[in-house]
Amino acid sequence: MRGHRAGKVRTFDERRGLGEIESDDGTTFPFHCTAIADGTRRITPGTPVEFDVVAGLPGRWEAATIERVAD
Questions:
Q1: d(Cα 19, Cα 24) in Å, to the nearest integer?
Q2: What is the reported pLDDT for 56?
Q3: Does 1 score more than 70 pLDDT?
Q4: Torsion of CA 19, 29, 33, 58, to 10 degrees
Q5: What would the pLDDT profile of 50-62 be if each residue is shown by its tens digit?
Q6: Which residues, in sequence order, are bridge partners of residue 52?
Q7: 3 state SS of 45
Q8: Which pairs count as long-range contacts for 37-45, CB under 8 Å and 24+ apart, including other chains?
Q9: Percent of the chain scored above 90 by pLDDT?
């Protein structure tokens, strides 16, 4: 499952710093605001992104190195 993917931010809770990205193949990956590559710590739902998939908590995959891309 590891690798580089494209998708869109599905949800983001600014207070908790947690969100989800839906990849172009429909798989959803959780992320923490510290995974946003530009260091802004916030991102708007619907934003197109590219990201890496890495092993997170045992048995879970999550998004990392999240970069915004132009529509």
A1: 16
A2: 87
A3: no
A4: 120
A5: 999 999 888 899 9
A6: 4, 64
A7: coil
A8: 37/65, 37/66, 37/67, 38/67, 38/68, 41/17, 42/12, 42/14, 43/9, 43/12, 43/19, 43/68, 44/9, 44/12, 45/8, 45/9, 45/10, 45/11, 45/12, 45/19
A9: 85
